[in-house]
Design goal:
CATH class of the largest domain: Alpha Beta
Shape: globular
Strand content: 5-15%
Number of strands: 9
Oligomer: single chain
Helix content: 40-55%
Radius of gyration: 23 Å
Structural class: alpha/beta
Largest sheet: 9 strands, mixed
CATH architecture of the largest domain: 3-Layer(aba) Sandwich
Distance between the termini: 78 Å
Length: 348
């Protein structure tokens, strides 16, 4: 009898464990956001909802490749990418599940999310933005010589220009937008002008470009705003000195505006926890999460009307700047064309 009771007890415990496991709320996140400050976002969501987040980190290309390889067996629920063209490509490749969410549709401006499908579903939503700006050596370069993207290719900037790889998503998206503004022939000539003006071969990341300008190796460079903001907010005297040495320009304020890229999120096509996934995306457009994007990683929130508590972002733009309105789909569709141009002009 004792053996029977023991067996029954073990079976009951096993069933109880299985039941508890089945009730556990989880969310599998594939994220290209490799920012340490985002940890607070995930912890706050779990605390508020009880939903545990399992995270896989990679870059945009790595995540897309993994999703394609996993197919319908993918455990991914939410995808976070940091480039507009990659979001568009993920949509085109059918990697995302179009969703209906009044919260997201109300919070995110139309130009910062995918176009609705025939049944009204939306494949991805922008969550934060970052501008691609020009930094320049305040001691050697005149601001008026670098106040548009076009002027970076002008002979006046010969031997001054520094940039990361032309094939990096941040540059591909800028170049894709320039193709819309200038047309392919003029854009290729502009890219050739950038190559001719380089102070060195493309290398490093955006922070490296800023430091190269501050050191005098370069006169002018491209960077996303949050890299500069990090240096401006740093408690490290050397990093603060770098930020103080360089000037910043939001290009093309008198024409089409500064190029702005989008970081965003989507529900994975084969999500097993789609309800939790939608909850998470809705949480990311809440005032608390949007302020975290601004204060934690120096990005601009997509939700309009929020007052930023980040003095560096406010100081950079005097509170406002004109951004371009090129459709994200157009930027995405230009990517292959742009890469071919880069190859032809020798832009590494």
């Amino acid at each position: 009898m004792r053996r029977i009771l023991t067996a029954l007890s073990l079976a009951s415990l096993s069933l109880l464990g299985s039941s508890l496991h089945a009730q556990e709320q989880v969310l599998n996140l594939y994220s290209a956001r490799h920012y340490p400050t985002d940890e607070a976002l995930y912890a706050d969501f779990t605390k508020a909802t009880g939903i545990k987040i399992n995270r896989v980190d990679s870059d945009d290309a790595g995540i897309v490749t993994r999703l394609k390889a996993e197919g319908s067996a993918s455990p991914a629920d939410v995808i976070l990418l940091v480039d507009a063209a990659r979001l568009w490509k993920g949509e085109v490749d059918g990697l995302f599940l179009p969703i209906r969410s009044k919260v997201l549709e109300t919070a995110v401006p139309k130009q910062l999310h995918a176009k609705p499908t025939d049944d009204g579903g939306i494949a991805w939503f922008g969550l934060s933005t970052r501008a691609r700006v020009v930094v320049y050596d305040k001691l050697k370069v005149k601001k008026q010589d670098v106040d548009t993207y076009e002027k970076l290719a002008d002979p006046i900037n010969k031997g001054r220009f520094c940039v990361r790889s032309g094939s990096h998503p941040y540059n591909l998206s800028l170049f894709g937008a320039m193709t819309e503004h200038l047309g392919p022939v003029q854009t290729e000539a502009w890219l050739k002008g950038l190559v001719n003006n380089m102070a060195r071969a493309p290398q490093g990341g955006d922070t490296d470009q800023i430091k190269a300008v501050a050191s005098g190796e370069c006169g002018v460079a491209l960077t996303n705003t949050y890299y500069l903001a990090r240096l401006m907010r740093s408690s490290n005297p050397a990093e603060k000195a770098v930020a103080e040495r360089v000037g910043v320009v939001f290009p093309n304020q008198q024409s089409w505006g500064t190029h702005v890229n989008v970081a965003g999120g989507a529900v994975a096509r084969h999500s097993k926890n789609a309800t939790n996934a939608v909850k998470f995306l809705e949480y990311l457009v809440s005032p608390a999460a949007q302020n975290h994007f601004a204060n934690g990683n120096n990005e601009w929130p997509v939700v309009q009307g929020l007052k930023l508590d980040n003095p560096v972002l406010n100081a950079m733009t005097a509170g406002n700047f004109k951004s371009e309105l090129v459709p994200i789909s157009a930027v995405g569709m230009n990517q292959i064309k742009v890469q071919q141009m880069l190859d032809r002009v020798g832009f590494k």
